[in-house]
Predict the structure of Unplaced genomic scaffold scaffold_1416, whole genome shotgun sequence.
Amino acid sequence: MPGHPARSVLFYMSILALLSSAGAASLSYLPTANPFLDPKDDPYNPLRYITSNTLTAIAFAVVMVIALVHTFSTFRYGAKWMLAMVIGEYTYMAGFGCRFGLHYNPDSEAVYIAEYLFIVLSPCAFIAANYVLLGRLSRHISCTDHVLLPSQRLTFVFVSSDIITFLIQAIGGGMSVSRSVGQELVGSHIFLAGLVLQLASFLTFSCIYARFLYRIYTLVPNVWERDKEQRWYFDWRALAGALAVSCIGILIRSCYRVAELSQGYLGYLITTEAFFYVLDTLPLVVAVSVYAPFWPGRFIKNEVFDVEPKVSDLGPLESTMRHST
C-alpha cells in the first residue's frame, strides 16, 4: 500500500469515516438554549466561535476549483500517481462543507467530528503526493544518486511514515472528542504526538530535497541547465520550484498545528478563526494550488525507469546528445 498513494488515501478516508460515524453515534448532550448568544463560553461549542459562512464559502470554492483543475490535469497530462493529492483535495473540501453546518448548528458534535477529522487529516494526502513526486523527479532527470536514499526506498519510507502518523492522529482525534475527560486528555496527547511525528518526518524529507537540489546545482550543472532553452513547462526546475513551494506551505501549516494543539482544545490559537485561515488554510491552498500551472504530468511523461545510465555519470557532450534525441 505505501507504494500506491491513491490507495493509501482511500485507506485514510475509510478510517476517517469510521471514526467520524463511531464518534458521532457515541455522543449525547443537552444543548444550550441559545448557542449563538455566547459561543466563547458555550461548553457545548467545541470551536468556541461561530464559523463565518463568508470565509467558509471562499475556502470551499477555492479548494473546489483547485481540485477540478487537478482532476482535469490528471486526465489531460497524466501523472495518475498524483491522485493522492486530488482525492485529498475533495475530502478537504468536504471538511469546509461541514463548517457550513457548524455555522447553523455550532453545538453539533457530530458535525464537528466530521469537520475536524476531514480538515486535519486530509493534508496527509498532500504530503504523500509530495513524497512520491521527489522519487519521480529524481528519476526523470536521472539523478537518483543525489538523493540520500534510493528513490523507491525513499518513497516507501516516507509514505509509510505518513500512513503511521495519519493513524496516530486518527486514533487521537477519535479519542479527543470523547465526553470522558481522561480519555479526551489522552486523545489530545496522542493526536499531538502524531502531529509532531508528521512534522519531524516532513522536515526530514524537506532537508533531503534541499540537499538533492543543492547537489545537482553544484555537482552536475549540465543537468541543472539542461532545459534552460525549453519553454517553462518543459523545464524540470519549474516543477522542482513548485515542489519547494509546496513543502514550505505544508511546513508552515504543520508548525501551526503543533503549536495550536500544544495549547489544548481551549487555547487561543484553536479558538480564533483567523489563525485557522491564515496559518492552516492559506499555506495548504498555496501548497496544492502551485501544481495548477506546474502539474507534474506536463514535465514527466512516459518514463521508463530501467538500468538507464544517470545523466550525472555522462559527460557534457553525451548528456547533450542524449537529451536532444
Q: What stands out?
A: Confidence is low (pLDDT under 50) at residues 20-29, 304-325. DSSP finds eleven helices and no strands in the chain. The radius of gyration is 22 Å.
